[in-house]
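$ ./design --mode recover --in tokens.txt
reading tokens...
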């Protein structure tokens, strides 16, 4: 069992470090450098701690069991933090990602019980000979303190690359203004524009331009034409000034939307991802609301990284209805050809 733990320690720590570092992207953290370095130092620190515990167990150092307990404790804490983050979803038990940290906690507790009670462990590492090395407080202190300091620093830091909020308006000082605004006279028959983006209207879809209370202009697409009293889907499209990229920015916009709309209605996350597209990035979250009639919300944010524009699409449709949301997303253009 000890050999199994040590093999798992080496393999899991290596894979975790590799996956963590490969997933690091500055834009994911809203261009806040300390937040990014907090996660980097956490991943590296966990790998160092695992390697230190591995060597100590192999060489039977007097601090081997203490290090193992410390490593398992850190794993439990990190998995608990992950659980709290996933608790933002109304129905976390229906989110498959919820079970990964749960499984991590269970595995850590099982190994802790093994090292606590196994006769072989007590014989190999006698209780009376277990103690810390003097250097341990510096090593373990750095592993814990450095990521926390960077995290706190990042919480009060500004992005290293400035990005405009919707309220700030649109900064066109660094873009080709001749191609920034859309010329309505050059549109095709199946295209509409608000002056900032071009929307290709799918066949059989009705569209209407609306003005919200805050002055926001948007297009609403639906199948009202087929049945004015009962629509199967509604797709709202609005252009925005550049709002910054990254998962943190998208999640902030998503949470603001929930607070203002359907905050208290339980939902299940169906899709949550980011993809690279021709002109920039596409952030998309699809959830199913559990109401009398199951409704699906498709929340999508498109970024044009060249012209510094953004487009937000919110789509509602009954489960099972083939809403043309994918067609609308693919048909969005930020500039004329």
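writing sequence...
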């Amino acid at each position: 069992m000890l050999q199994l733990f040590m093999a798992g320690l080496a393999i899991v720590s290596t894979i975790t470090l590799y996956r963590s570092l490969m997933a690091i992207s500055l834009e994911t953290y809203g261009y806040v450098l300390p937040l990014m370095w907090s996660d980097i130092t956490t991943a590296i620190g966990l790998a160092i701690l695992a390697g230190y515990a591995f060597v100590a167990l192999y060489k039977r150092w007097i601090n081997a069991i203490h290090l193992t307990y410390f490593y398992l404790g850190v794993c439990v804490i990190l998995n608990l933090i992950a659980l709290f983050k996933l608790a933002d979803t109304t129905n976390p038990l229906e989110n498959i990602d919820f079970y990964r940290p749960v499984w991590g906690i269970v595995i850590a507790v099982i190994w802790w019980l093994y090292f606590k009670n196994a006769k072989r462990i007590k014989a190999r590492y006698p209780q009376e000979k277990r103690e810390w090395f003097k250097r341990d407080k510096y090593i373990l202190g750095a592993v814990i303190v450095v990521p926390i300091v960077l995290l706190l620093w990042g919480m009060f830091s500004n992005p290293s690359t400035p990005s405009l909020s919707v309220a700030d308006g649109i900064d066109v000082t660094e873009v080709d203004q001749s191609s920034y605004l859309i010329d309505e006279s050059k549109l095709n028959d199946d295209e509409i524009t608000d002056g900032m983006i071009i929307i290709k209207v799918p066949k059989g879809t009705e569209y209407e331009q609306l003005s919200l209370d805050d002055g926001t202009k948007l297009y609403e697409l639906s199948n009202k034409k087929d049945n004015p009293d009962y629509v199967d889907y509604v797709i709202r499209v609005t252009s925005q000034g550049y709002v910054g990229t990254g998962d943190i920015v998208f999640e902030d916009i998503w949470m603001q939307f929930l607070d203002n709309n359907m905050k208290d209605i339980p939902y299940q996350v169906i899709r949550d991802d980011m993809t690279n597209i021709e002109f920039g990035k596409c952030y998309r979250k699809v959830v199913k609301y559990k109401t009398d009639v199951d409704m699906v919300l498709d929340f999508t944010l498109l970024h044009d990284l060249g012209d510094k524009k953004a487009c937000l699409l919110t789509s509602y449709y009954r489960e099972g209805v083939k809403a043309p949301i994918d067609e609308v997303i693919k048909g969005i253009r930020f500039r004329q050809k």
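exit 0
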